[in-house]
Design a protein that fits this description.
Blueprint lengths: L9 E5 L4 H14 L5 H14 L4 E3 L2 E4 L11 E11 L8 E8 L7 H11 L4 H6 L4 H9 L1
Helix pairs in contact: 1-2
Length: 144
């Protein structure tokens, strides 16, 4: 899974007041690295507003995403851990890891998502990521 989530697309112990800000922070990593346009972040937030907290896929973890569009310049994945968890209004709250996925089409992200899912399904991995103290530690856990 080398470089599925690059070093510059990871932030550890970010401070977010709420779920919207958490999505902003994770999306901004992809924006700064020219993977998406600003509108994609707005679309991720709108998806949760319109459809509810379906992105909270397991206790403690949200998979922020929106439909593929021209607002995605290149496939990308970012991951942030939060200093303090936020609530989305899900039975899987509180969330302390936001995984942000941007894809240019409906198929190209499948292998990336599969590789990420395999890592996250390792026993205790979500807790290990959430308690990581550095970007290097998260990077190593995901890309080893």
């Amino acid at each position: 899974m080398k470089e599925v989530i690059s070093f510059e697309n990871i932030r550890v112990k970010a401070s977010a007041e709420n779920w919207k800000e958490a999505i902003e922070i994770s999306g901004n990593l992809l924006l700064e690295n020219r993977k998406i346009k600003r509108k994609y972040i707005d679309n991720m937030i709108k998806a949760v507003i319109d459809m509810g907290p379906y992105i909270v896929i397991t206790p403690g973890l949200a998979l922020a995403h929106a439909e593929p569009s021209s607002d995605v310049l290149e496939n990308g994945v970012s991951l942030i851990t939060l200093k303090e968890p936020v609530d989305f209004g899900s039975i899987n709250d509180p969330v302390n890891i936001i995984l942000c996925l941007a894809s240019t089409d409906n198929n190209s992200h499948i292998n990336v998502l599969k590789a990420v899912a395999e890592k996250l399904m390792i026993e205790g991995m979500i807790d290990r990521l959430a308690s990581s103290k550095s970007v290097q530690e998260v990077y190593s856990l995901l890309n080893e």
